[in-house]
Design a protein that fits this description.
19% helix; 30% strand; Umud Fragment, subunit A; alpha+beta; 190 residues; four-stranded antiparallel β-sheet
C-alpha cells in the first residue's frame, strides 16, 4: 500500500498519461467529425460569380444554416449540379418555392415585382419565365453573361442544396464572412 504523500508507481503515471492522450485524441476526432458534418470546403471554379467570387477562391460552406432555416433569396449557395451530381456549383438564390421568376430586358421580376441586384457584373441578354414548385429554387450566377445556371438547366430542387457559403479563407486578401444580399422589396407568393 502507498500513502497519499508517497511517490506513485511509474506504471500508474504512464497509465494516466496514456489515458489523457487517448481522451485528447478522442476529443480532437469528435470536434473534427462535428465540423465536417456541419460544414464543407468548396473551391470556386470559373468566373460565373464574379465580381464577388473568383476562380480558385476557397470557401467554407455551412450545412447547419439550412438544418435550422430555409434557404432565402440573396443567399449564396453550393449545390450539386442537377445534370451531373458529382459536380458542385456556387450560385445565388433569386427565386423561392412557389414564385414566378421572369427574366428579360436585363431585369428580373419575382411575382411581377422587379428586384434590384447591385452585385451583378453586367446585364444579361437572355429571357424566360419559370414558375417554381414547392421545393424548387431559381439560382443565377452574379456574372450573368457567363454563368451556367437556372436559366440554362431550370430550377433546382431543395434536396441538391449542400449549404450556404459562409466564410472565404483563401486567398488571404479575400478572408472574411461571405456577404448575402438582403432584398428590400417585399415579394409575396401569388
Amino acid at each position: 500500500m502507498y500513502d497519499d504523500d508517497g511517490p506513485r508507481p511509474i506504471f500508474s503515471q504512464r497509465a494516466q498519461f496514456a489515458r489523457e492522450l487517448f481522451e485528447t485524441a478522442l476529443l480532437i476526432a469528435a470536434v473534427f467529425t462535428l465540423v465536417n458534418l456541419l460544414s464543407v470546403r468548396f473551391v470556386v471554379e470559373g468566373s460565373s460569380m464574379e465580381p464577388n467570387f473568383h476562380d480558385g477562391q476557397y470557401i467554407v460552406v455551412s450545412r447547419l444554416d439550412y438544418m435550422l432555416d430555409a434557404p432565402a433569396r440573396g443567399d449564396v449557395i453550393v449545390f450539386h449540379y442537377p445534370q451531373d451530381p458529382s459536380r458542385d456549383f456556387i450560385k445565388r438564390i433569386v427565386g423561392l418555392p412557389g414564385e414566378t421568376v421572369a427574366v428579360g430586358a436585363g431585369q428580373i421580376t419575382i411575382n411581377g415585382k422587379t428586384i434590384d441586384e447591385p452585385y451583378i457584373k453586367a446585364p444579361f441578354r437572355y429571357a424566360g419565365r419559370w414558375t417554381l414548385a414547392d421545393d424548387e429554387y431559381f439560382v443565377l450566377g452574379d456574372n450573368r453573361g457567363n454563368s451556367n445556371d437556372s436559366h440554362d438547366f431550370g430550377p433546382i430542387k431543395r434536396g441538391v442544396i449542400v449549404g450556404r457559403a459562409w466564410v472565404s479563407y483563401w486567398p488571404v486578401h479575400l478572408w472574411g464572412v461571405v456577404p448575402h444580399y438582403d432584398y428590400s422589396v417585399d415579394i409575396h407568393t401569388p
